[in-house]
Write a structure and sequence with these properties.
Elements lengths: L2 H12 L12 H20 L1 H8 L5 H26 L5 H10 L16 H18 L8 H29 L3 H20 L11 H6 L7 H19 L9 E3 L4 E3 L5 H8 L6 H14 L1 H19 L1
Antiparallel strand pairs: 1-2
This protein binds Phenylacetyl coenzyme A.
Amino acid sequence: DDADGRTRFEELIAADDRVEPSDWMPEAYRKTLVRQISQHAHSEVIGMQPEANWIGRAPSLKRKAILMAKVQDEAGHGLYLYSAAQTLGTDRDTMFEQLIAGSAKYSSIFNYLTPTWADMGSIGWLVDGAAICNQVPLCRASYGPYGRAMVRICKEESFHQRQGFEILLSLMAGTPEQRAMAQESVNRWYWPALMMFGPPDDESPNSQQSMAWNIKRLSNDGLRQRFIDMLVPQAEVLGVTLPDPDLRWNEERGHYDHGPLDWDEFHEVLAGRGQANAQRLERRRQAHEDGAWVREAARAYAERMAARREE
Ligand code: FAQ
């Protein structure tokens, strides 16, 4: 332990300043950041798969170009986040091995299937919408490289959210079949999107400490409520119904009341028994193996360049 370092760390947190990679930090602070950042990075990388499913089948050239750009952004977000985690001393190969071995978490939401085109709309509107709601406060996270990565990610996520909303808006202005497709998709994605914020506050083991360290700024339930309050007027503009019969404005609280979430489903998905857990990991493993030659070539090139510099 470094007494001066600890005092300085506590001062930084108390002043709501930023902790930088060269600063002393408690091991538990480092560990929880690596846990949260790597989980987020893996979510971005695995999160490319549900949408990649539709790149080859997008209904127009324009839609295809937009979807490709979005999925590429997700790869980029993964890279910023792996870089932020690397400044804490855990390298990307290690995190990748944990992902492929199935021992690392990624967001529950990416274990749901995308059978219809409307799912591209729902992912943008609901999944990216939830992501922004969760991540805007993370731009102020106490760890510098993480907060700064989040600023750029949030800007890109806003575009993703709007493109999803616009897909649904187009479908809702279409034929009865298209409207039905949009509604059916929203019905499937609504509850899983609410689960993205994590377990209820009284069952969230990490929240209290993460909030004391200024990593998380708002609780899981607090963010979930903020998200629901945001969605209701947007659903009205779209003309879709949110599939919760208990959803109603509570004048006293100044928030929408909502029905209970199915936490058994959440725990099943986390335990690996969601619709697509096995498929997502298998695809990731295969892509990693298929990319071995690229890593080998990049390493050989880097070595040759280093040797040349020494000459
Ligand atoms: N799925 O004590 P807490 C995106 C775990 S957005 C799976 O409350 P914490 C953009 C949690 O890790 C999605 N696991 O934990 C995109 C912990 O287990 P651990 C990614 C979950 O950390 C859009 C345990 O449950 N965004 O990718 C989930 O304080 C479209 C107990 O929970 C982020 O990761 C879940 N939903 O709060 C990409 C944002 N919820 O780690 C492509 C950053 C909880 O102890 C297409 N992360 N768990 O083994 C966070 O803000 C936090 O980590 C929370 C969880 C809020 C997710």
